[in-house]
Every structure is written in C-alpha cells, then in structure tokens.
Predict the structure.
Amino acid sequence: MTEAPMRRFDTPDLEELPEDVRERITEEREEAGFTPNVFPAFAYRPSHFRAFFEYHDALVNDTALEREEIEMLVVTVSGINDCLYCVVAHGALVRIYADDPQLADQLATNYRSADLSERHQAMLEFAELLTESPGRVDDAAVEALVEAGFTREQVWDIASVVAYYNLSNRMATVADMRPNEEFYTLGR
Amino acid sequence: MTEAPMRRFDTPDLEELPEDVRERITEEREEAGFTPNVFPAFAYRPSHFRAFFEYHDALVNDTALEREEIEMLVVTVSGINDCLYCVVAHGALVRIYADDPQLADQLATNYRSADLSERHQAMLEFAELLTESPGRVDDAAVEALVEAGFTREQVWDIASVVAYYNLSNRMATVADMRPNEEFYTLGR
Amino acid sequence: MTEAPMRRFDTPDLEELPEDVRERITEEREEAGFTPNVFPAFAYRPSHFRAFFEYHDALVNDTALEREEIEMLVVTVSGINDCLYCVVAHGALVRIYADDPQLADQLATNYRSADLSERHQAMLEFAELLTESPGRVDDAAVEALVEAGFTREQVWDIASVVAYYNLSNRMATVADMRPNEEFYTLGR
Amino acid sequence: MTEAPMRRFDTPDLEELPEDVRERITEEREEAGFTPNVFPAFAYRPSHFRAFFEYHDALVNDTALEREEIEMLVVTVSGINDCLYCVVAHGALVRIYADDPQLADQLATNYRSADLSERHQAMLEFAELLTESPGRVDDAAVEALVEAGFTREQVWDIASVVAYYNLSNRMATVADMRPNEEFYTLGR
Amino acid sequence: MTEAPMRRFDTPDLEELPEDVRERITEEREEAGFTPNVFPAFAYRPSHFRAFFEYHDALVNDTALEREEIEMLVVTVSGINDCLYCVVAHGALVRIYADDPQLADQLATNYRSADLSERHQAMLEFAELLTESPGRVDDAAVEALVEAGFTREQVWDIASVVAYYNLSNRMATVADMRPNEEFYTLGR
Amino acid sequence: MTEAPMRRFDTPDLEELPEDVRERITEEREEAGFTPNVFPAFAYRPSHFRAFFEYHDALVNDTALEREEIEMLVVTVSGINDCLYCVVAHGALVRIYADDPQLADQLATNYRSADLSERHQAMLEFAELLTESPGRVDDAAVEALVEAGFTREQVWDIASVVAYYNLSNRMATVADMRPNEEFYTLGR
C-alpha cells in the first residue's frame, strides 16, 4: 500500500477533480511512470494547482537558464529550507539533468562542498542570500551575478526560481508532502 | 515625472506586451486610478506575469479567509522579510479592507503590538514561524491554528498566502520595485 | 476616549507628579498640540524621566549631526528592534525634518530600499551592526564611517543615538507604549 | 604608564572639563581609589556624561531592586552583548555586592550555570530575551516575572537596568573602553 | 582515477605511516571493501588518528544505545552542521543499521519529516539543541530525554555522540574530506 | 565540603575505577595540587575518559602551535559556546601560559577587545567561524590563516583544537561540570 501524498491534509479524490486538473495529473503519471505526490496534493485547491503549475512550467520552459541550473537552484534552496519533498524529488532531477549521481546530495548538504564552476558558485551564493535574508539583497549582490557572467534576464530567472521554491518549500512542509519512493533512487 | 516601477530591471514597453498582459494592466489602472508598479514590473516576463497574477487571484477569490485576514498576513510577512513594495502597497489594502488606519503600521512593525483577537494572534504567529523558519513547522504549529478556530481549509489558505508572499517579497526586493506614491497615503 | 499611554503599567496621575516633570509634560503638549505618550509613560519613575529626557535633549541639541540624520537613525534602529511606538512617533519626525513623506516608511522597512547618499548608507549600515551585533563592532566598522566623511565627533554622536534608542526601544516595548494617533499621519 | 581609558576616541583633559563633570570624576576616584575609565571616557561629551550618570544614579538609588540584583542583571546583559568593559567592571561589583567571588564569572559566561533562586533565574531569562530579541517581549514574558514574585515596579526597574546597559554596552564597545586593571581582581 | 580523500591537506603516504595506523586502515579496507576516506585523512596526524578512532570505537562499542540510534544522531547532527562527508558516509550506515533506505535522507534534511517514535523524536530534538545552541541546554532539556524513556547512562551516550560529531563535522569540513563514491549508494 | 564535579550525572567512586583511569586522576591531582573536575566527571565512562584525554594530550604535545595559542583558542571557543567549566578552567591556563592576568577575561568576553597580533586575530576569527557556522568554512577562510603566516600543519592543529573543544564544551554543559574554585583565581 502506498503512502498518502501528504499527511496534514486529505488528498482529494482524483475522480472528483475538475477535468483539466485530472488530465494534468494523468499526463504526469504517464510521463514519470508514477504520480509525483505534489500533483494530487496541490489539487487540494484546483485554483492553486493551476497557477502553481503554470508558474512552474513558465520557469522551466521560458527561461534563459539551463534546466540543470534550475534544478541545482531548487535543491540548494530546498536544503536551506529543510524541505524533504523538494530535496528528494528535485534531487532526482539534478541527478538526471546534470547527469551526475552525487551532485544532488552535495547541494542539499552544502553547496560549498560541491564541484562547481565559479559561475555556479556565484549563482548558489545568491540563492542562499535571497533565501535566508531576502531583505539583505542589495546592488552588490545582484552585481556579483552579473560579474559571474549572467545576463540581466538570467538574473531575473535565477531570482524567480529561488522565489518560487521559497513558496513551494513552505507548502510542501506545511502539508507534510511525502516524496514518492521512486525519487529516492532515480538517477543514482 | 514618475519613478520607474523597478530599479534593477528595465520595465518593458506597454505597447510591446502581449495583448492579455496589456489588458490586465489597463484593468488594474482603471480600477485603482493608477497602475500599481508590480504589474508593469512583472511584465518583464509575460509568462511569469500570467502565473503570478493567476495565483494571486486564486488566493483572494477562492478562499475560506476574509480579505482583511489575507492582507494582514501579507503585511506581517512582508514586514518580516523587509520588503518595501509589499509593506507599502498592502499596507494600503489593510487600511482599506480592515477599515483601520493604524493596523498596517502596527503589523509591519510588530504584530505583537497590534490589537488582535486571539484568533488573529495565532494566525500571525504561524505566519511568522513559516516565514522565518519553514523547516521548524511541525504538527504542534498546525494544531495551534486549529485550536484557534481555523478549519483545515483555512489552514491551507493561510499557508498559501504566507508562501506566496515569500515568493513576492523576494521578487520585489531583487527587482527593487518602488511603491507607487499613492500607496503611502491611501486609507490613512 | 483616548487610549492609555502604555498598557503594561499604570500611567501616573499628572496632578501627583513632581513640579518639574509636570512642567515638562505641559511644555511638550503645548509645543506638539498633544501630549506624546512617552512623557506620561516615563513619568512612572520621575527620576528616570529626568535622566531619560536630559539625555534625549543632549542628543538633539549638543550634536555634530543634522536633526534629520538623528531621526533617520532612530527610525532605522527602531525598525530593526520592532518597536511600534518609536517607529511611528519618530517616523513623523523623519517626515518633518527630512521634509520627505516617504522616507520614514522606507527606513522602518529596509534602509537598503531608501534613497540615500553614500554617506547616509554608511551611517545606517553602522547603526544596523551596532544594534544587531554590538560585540562585532570593530576598527573596520568605525573606520567605514570615517571614510564616509564623518568626523570622530560625529561617530560618537551616531553611536550615542543608536545606543540611546536601543534603550528607548526596549522600554517602549516592555511598557507597550502606544503611539498617539497624531503621529501616524503627521507630515504625510 | 596606565592604559588610555578608551581607544577609539581621545579622552578629554580633566582640566578642561566643566566644573561639575570634573567634580564627579574626582568623587569617583576618591571613592574607588582609582578613576573608573567610564568617567573620563564619557566626559568626551559633557552633556552626555551628565545624563548618563544621572540615569545610572537613578537606577541604583531609586529602585525596588537589591543592588546585588542590579549588578547581576548588568553582568548578564553585558556578557550577552560581549562588552569587555562592562563585564569586567560590573563583575567586580557583583563579587562585592553579592559577596560571592564566583558569581560574576558564572553570569558573564552563562547564567544557566550559576546558582540562582527561581526568582533570579526568571529575572535573567527576561533580561536575556529583552537584550537579544526586544521585539519578542510579550505579555507572557512580563507575566513570568510577576509569577516569579516581582512587583510591577520591580518589573519596570528590571527592564530599565537591561535597557540602560544595552545603551552602555554599545557605547563602551564603540569607544573600546578599557577596564581598569583594578576591576579584574576586586572582590576575588 | 579516484578522488583524493581530502582537498585542503595532503594525504600522507600509507607506506610512511606508523605500523598501528597502517594496520587500522588495512582492516577498515578489508571490512568495507574500500577505504573510507576519513581514515587516510585523519592519518595526517597519527596521534590524532589514534585518539579519534579510539573515541569512535568507544562510542559504538561501549554504549547503552542501539547502533541504529547512534547513526540517526550522527546524520541529524551532520545535516545541521552541513557536513558533506559525514552526511553521506553515515547516511549509508543509517540505511544499513536501520534497514531503511529512506531514513537517512529524511534525517539529513529535516528530522521533523521522518517517521520516528516519540522516543527518537525527543532524542533528535535534544541533538538539535545541543548542536545549535550548546549554552541553552538546561535541566529541562535533559529531563525531556528522561521523560522520553532514556536512562541517565543513555543520556550521557547521546550527548557524547552529538559532541563527538560536532568535532568530526568540523574536521571533515575544514579538510574538505570527500565521501567515497560507494557511500552515496550503499544500502539504497 | 567541596562541590560535586558535575551536577547532572553521579560521579563514579575513585576506588571502583579501572587502574589506568585512577592513576591518571592521581597524577593530575599531584601535578595541580587539586583534582580538576573534568577528570572524575569523564570517568563516568572509562572508555570515553581514555580517548578524550588521549586526544587532549595529542593536541597539546604533538603540535605546531604554542601552548599559549592553544589555550587562547580554547577560551575563545568556550566563550562562544557559553561553557562555564571550560572558560574558567582554561582561563587559568591562559593566564599561566600567556603570563597575562587579563587576557583570559578578554578572550572569554570578546576577542575583538583583546590585545592581539594580527596573526592571533586571524586565528581567533577562524575559530569563531568554525565554532558558530562550521558549514560556512570555505577556501577563503582557510587561506586567511595561511596569509596570516600559519603553515598547513598549524591550520590542521588550529582546526583540531577548535573541533575538540566543540566536543568538550558540549559534554561539560550537558553534565553541568563545575569549575574547581582554584581555577577562578589561579594566575590572576
């Protein structure tokens, strides 16, 4: 018997969900071979589900960043925010997109111990600052990204990924979303 | 001459924006009598604009909370995150929706000094914990909301508002969005 | 009916106060058009009242700083210390002395988002460090003020204002002093 | 040759000080057998000197607390704020007033490791909270003092001592005031 | 080609190490099938090597705790201290000793999201407090362990494991010890 | 009657301890003229006693640092960790080895207020970082030591002393070890 997608809220019945939400969940299941728990969990409020995944899709499809960079940001931010679902699920995506079986565990623990280009080191330093102390972000912090070679558009996209996972981490932790067991081993 | 909507990114030309984005901005201007700067700023990436405001609309329209409670959460979270745009813009909304000219300044400074029901005190304590230490949210923190009289659905909605403004605050600070001068005085 | 000046201690009867204390309170009322609540509140202990306002008067009258700079320091420090009375009362003074209706809200939320000269930026960075981490003040922190153009005497005066409001903020918060409603709107 | 009273500001010439300031310094020297460095240091601004010591005198002379309790508060607060002058000078006073050669070192390091009545444990817990997180002081924190047996007046006095040394610690650290060597050994 | 055991210090030549150190390293390699990098790394100072592993052996062999509990403590502490080597190496040991492929990732991210008995929840809360704020450990913190069912001897052993990995984590991070690639997948 | 060596665990009977442990305790008493309480306290578990003191002996005997430097590190780290036993006992050792009656109180309170060479300033900055935020130690932090003139071997030894007292401080605080009264005055 599989674990419930989240522990602090009842997961809605797939059958009773609006058509478009049900379809998206089905697509995800077909693509991944299993249904990542964030989908049925977020269907708790279909209106939130739609906006949340529309935002997610924009972040990964309409971006000046590499997908690998996006997932590196997600795991680093989620590690700082101590978010189990996001560390485990996006850890699998880091392993797959970066084609590196160890990078996710390194980023989740401490990006300073990961093998990173100076560019990615700067990117994750910014992610750390924006996550931990958003009010301390200043011109110097943004300029450090530009000096590391990022365009203005990429700065926006980095900030957006960090900001979005500061939302996601909080929802996943409050709901106590459970990572599907597949995520723990994918790409190792 | 009016101040630019944000200082760290160029604001796109209204004319060059996709039709739907332009229309939303026009509607907002007509409703408020001025264009709140978050709209032209977020149009930097139309795909983000759409998801961001769809999420916002869901939070305020499809909710088990009072609008006044939502805005109280926003100002409290934004004060903790030291976010100028959100404190000033939503400060105006607190004054209007709560029909109280002082509450916003109280919440932005320290919700412990505001006149609050026990219910709202509990709501803002949870908002503070979820904003400052998301990884420390546990069963006891969620149960405290239930004991203060919130339904499960309201707990989800409180968490969603807090999480969403943890995204918004970070985007507004990175972009250095400027509060329209109207917001400083509205509802005082 | 007006709100009590403070909530955690009984405010003394004006009639029963020593002559000099009563006179000072009367002068303040005549000057401001209302009695700022910090005066009757601090009269709880007349001996403290005398020293507290003597110190205050020395800080604003015998100083190498502009009054506007003093009030900018006060609002920044009080914002960091989450002190409602001081943010609201001195916010009014910033608006008046700096002749700027928005600066106080900017400083109370995040001085990094205010329009400041480099000199004032350096002054408020020092105020933040001295408020949050007094033990970390070192030669470099003091030299940064000198490099920003402050004389030694001005450094003493900056430190004194920051130190004094670290006292005031704590007394106002423990007593739960209430800002007079006039302060919320003065100078907007 | 003795060490200068402070390192970051020039100490004024005793001869050139106003009569009343010079007299107070002379009295202190006669009483202690040496001139505690805080006196010549604070004479940097005679107007501050007068208010600072008037406040100090009010705190120790017009109080509902025992002098021993006042000095225990001072050393605890100064230890939290990492202030060398105040820990060493008031450490001597704790040894003398509490007639205990070890208590000062215990309080400066960690009041949890000192031998304290429940009353004093509560007093120092409050001092710690008010020093570290002034904005988190709430009704419960104040009521804990009342439950530990303190009168309202004593609560005011405790808060005042803590607040005042949050001022003093900051001035002593910015000035880099040096504890007189006598203080290191007095009362051991 | 394998990665060096640590990056900030040269690893000594096995041949040049004292006999007893070399023998211990050989034993470890034979037992694990590979040489865990902490062994050659700590051989940088043979005198430290001997004491460090003698202490380790005492902690796991002369204990009132289950080995599974010891490794749970190690991963929790190492996650809080952001120590890559210890999280990855002892993560493998948690998977093996607890016979649970997911527990290590849960503990490294956030023990509040792990499936734990109340006893182990209490154990890890204590580990967190002792790691993050050693000076705040008080009678109540120790009594919470006793109330959760631990004997005095077990309390000593829990404290010892936490204290020892506060040493180990710091050495591993300063040396930048690299987890052997075997550890990343063992027991998954 | 003398105070018990620790308050949260029963101290074992000297007579019932293993021969080697008893001998070490006797030696220490003969050398110091009294039995430092850490010895009978750690004898709670003879296997820990042996490894703990073997490590200690390696740190002070097989080292590229001066003994005075080691004790300066210990007092600084113990002050940060608020550990009474270690501050007081090693404070005495700083006074003796550095032949300076004031240095220990300065380091325990705030190393920034001590008279230090740039070399020792750098050493204690590193100790502070490694104690407070072990996961933030990076190449730059280690290189700062090298630039201050320390050899690689000395860097290892500095890190080892800091790491070891992060263990010791935690055991002393959990056990509530009491400094012998002799330590309070030795070397003053």
